[in-house]
Amino acid sequence: MDVLIHFKEDGAKLCGFVEGEIDTFTASGLREELEAVKITKGLEIELDLSKVNYMDSTGLGIFVAFYKRATREGGKVKLVGLSNRLQRLFEITGLSELMDIETDKKVEFS
């Protein structure tokens, strides 16, 4: 299964919806989509992972790299809608201490 990402801009906020499996085989597409995001100072980015049904360490690395780039360029990243399984993955790796994660929220697309 591929990974899909859709973006919606709302003023100074960019909402992304990620769907599918993120692993060694699908990660390059996600990496390319995130690298194409133009980050400006003060931009808030929310990425909804509620439809991600699997992620390995490759996926974690992509989100860490995106988080670091956004922070370096003055933006903010929040991951929302994580399943218990994904939340646990971020917790056991210590990334939940570094990154802004809100499990109960989801990005609204109209």
UniProtKB/TrEMBL annotation:
Gene3D superfamilies: STAS domain. Residues 18-110 form the STAS domain. Pfam families: STAS. It comes from the Bacteria. Keywords: Phosphoprotein. PANTHER family: ANTI-SIGMA FACTOR ANTAGONIST TM_1081-RELATED-RELATED, ANTI-SIGMA-B FACTOR ANTAGONIST. Positive regulator of sigma-B activity. Non-phosphorylated RsbV binds to RsbW, preventing its association with sigma-B. When phosphorylated, releases RsbW, which is then free to complex with and inactivate sigma-B. This is Anti-sigma factor antagonist. It comes from Lysinibacillus parviboronicapiens.
